[in-house]
Amino acid sequence: MLNVYDILETIRMIQDECLDIRTITMGISLLDCIDSDIDKACDKVYDKITRCAKDLVKVGEDLEKEYGIPIINKRLSVTPIALVSAACKSSPIKFALTMEKAAKAVGVNLIGGYSALVQKGFSAGDLELINSIPEALALTSNVCSSVNIGSTKTGINLDACKIMGRIVRETAEKTVDNNCFGAAKLVVFCNAPDDNPFMAGAFHGVGQPDCIINVGVSGPGVVRAALSKYPDADITEIADIIKKTSYKITRVGQLVGVKASERLGVPFGIVDLSLAPTPAVGDSVAHILEEIGLEKCGAPGTTATLALLNDAVKKGGVMACSRIGGLSGAFIPVSEDAGMIDAAKSGSLCIEKLEAMTAVCSVGLDMIVVPGDTSADTIAAIIADEAAIGMVNSKTTAVRIIPAIGKGIGEELDWGGLFGCGPVMKVNTNSPSKFINRGGQIPAPLQSLKN
Amino acid sequence: MRAVITVIGKDTVGILAKVSGICAEYNANVIEVTQSVLQDVFAMIMLVDISKLNTGFTALSDRMSELGKELGLSIHTMHEDIFNSMHRI
Questions:
Q1: Exposed, middle or buried, A173 (CB in 10 Å: 0-12/13-18/19+)?
Q2: Predicted complex ipTM
Q3: Domains in chain A and their CATH numbers?
Q4: Does the beta carbon of B77 lie under 8 angstroms from any beta carbon of chain A?
Q5: I need a labelling partner for A58 at 20 to 30 A (CA). Which of A86, A171, A235, A322 fits?
Q6: Chain B partners within 8 Å of A15 (Cβ)
């Protein structure tokens, strides 16, 4: 028989502590849509997406009502478009427009996969796609783009870093009327996972089945509330509490994923064991770190507490579900986390500290607003730094920074909704241009002699 | 298949009657009820069998939310699987 305490705990987690399923993301392979005639290819892409995903939103909404848990986003990820567009001679922009049209037709809010994988060099279609990113993101509202420029096995493609520095800036410039929003939909990865359900970096990797359901959970508020009940616990107990809470959160993700996959007749892929914050009050990863005992996120101790949190979330989540993947870990997007926004505004949190934090948690420099006069080379070097952390530590790292064109320190960009609001953060202005312009490939790191 | 209906809010006459009335209307069989009133706050947890519903489960869930709005109460109708998943290994 169900226990009254358990029932009330679940309801409190959902109602008061912002527990939700952050996203159900359907991954769709577009490899069978390749055609040298771009119009034919786009028609096939549109047909395939609308055929596979026609019931996705309806099933998501039904599950939401049946289990009484909000499912915030229903999204799509597709095969990196550079692979699909390689056979076509003309600009891949048409694919972005087709993705947008298909996403609107099935009612999802974002579609990811306007992507290229160039960690070891550029093949046919890659450069065309990368160069079209600024225009593609300016012309569409729900298409997301990502580029993988490095991996532990291949090293870092420094030529691609340089290009992406320029592309990030151009994307922000092209969408300056919309708070530079284009750059918020563009991620530069090292070790990009090919089953990630979270935007803006989701794409459907080439080793994946034809169509699949991946789920991303959320619940920083639940973890913080659980910790607040034990103000005097020692740090080992804190790790245990986080593990238990993460288990419960992840179980819901597993349940929803399995049911969604049954009803859609599509195989279940993975649960992404994540703590994904939102700008809403009580849904912040930074506030968990502060609950553990920091005056403000960014203080000395931030990296240690985040490492503990990230590890405990995974340990709890692994037992709760059958398959794990994606980015799995705590996210630290600045503009999407009320505690991070506060810490950045107060000066407690700087980009260098965030970089250290990315060495021990999921993802990387995420949703960070930098001054509008930050040069393309500086952005490229920030990307290279972050990729180096991912490459050496065999983990995913990413950069999603938004140059606030025409703005400087003390100002902010406000997008509202899940994307939140980011204060412009200070960037070291010493030039890395000579390094970036050398080009070439940073060799893959040694996997032994680890120190 | 069973569902849990929880009702929390200010106590008034007839809450249990109205909730169970809707259950009857949709052919949901009430299996167990736990109810208490503490300092004017009404709290009820009702376990119902939903295997013979005469409509979809989401219709019942919508109707309960509507009743909650009418009465100014917080009413949640949730499939029991979410509790079983979360609290049992």
A1: middle
A2: 0.88
A3: 23-190 (3.20.70.20), 216-441 (3.20.70.20)
A4: yes
A5: A322
A6: 74
Task: Give the residue from chain B lying closest to A63, CA to CA.
Answer: B58
A67 CB neighbours in chain B (<8 A) are 78-79, 81-82
The pair of structure tokens assigned to A165 is 């520095």
Judged by CB atoms closer than 8 Å, whether chains meet at A68 and B78 is answered as: yes
Name the pLDDT band for A335 (thresholds 50, 70, 90). Answer: very high
CA A331 to chain centre: 8
| Beta bridge partners of residue A441, listed in sequence order | A157
Given a cut of 90, whether residue A17 has pLDDT beyond it is no
**Residue from A182, A111, A184 nearest A142 by CA:** A111
**Structure tokens that stand for A357 in this block:** 């934090």
Is B87's Cβ below 8 Å from some Cβ in A?
A: yes
**CA dihedral of A437, A443, A445, A449, whole degrees rounded to 10:** -110
Contact between chains at B76 and A248 (C-beta distance less than 8 A):
no
**What CATH architecture does domain B2-87 belong to?**
2-Layer Sandwich (3.30)
Q: Where are the domains of chain B?
A: 2-87
The first and second tokens of residue A332, run together, are: 């630290």
* A433 Cβ contact partners less than 8 Å away, ≥ 6 residues apart: A375, A377
Whether the CB-CB separation of A12 and B43 falls below 8 Å is answered with: no
Instruction: Quick: pLDDT tens for B15-73.
Output: 999 999 999 999 999 999 998 888 788 899 999 999 999 988 999 999 999 999 999 99
Q: Which of B45, B74, B82 to mutate to test the interface with A (most CBs of A within 10 A)?
A: B82
CA distances to A382, A402, B50 from A170, rounded to whole Å, are 16, 11, 56
Range B46-64 burial, b when 16+ CB lie within 10 A, else e = bbbebeebeeebeebbebb
Q: Can you read off the two tokens belonging to residue A348?
A: 């407690």
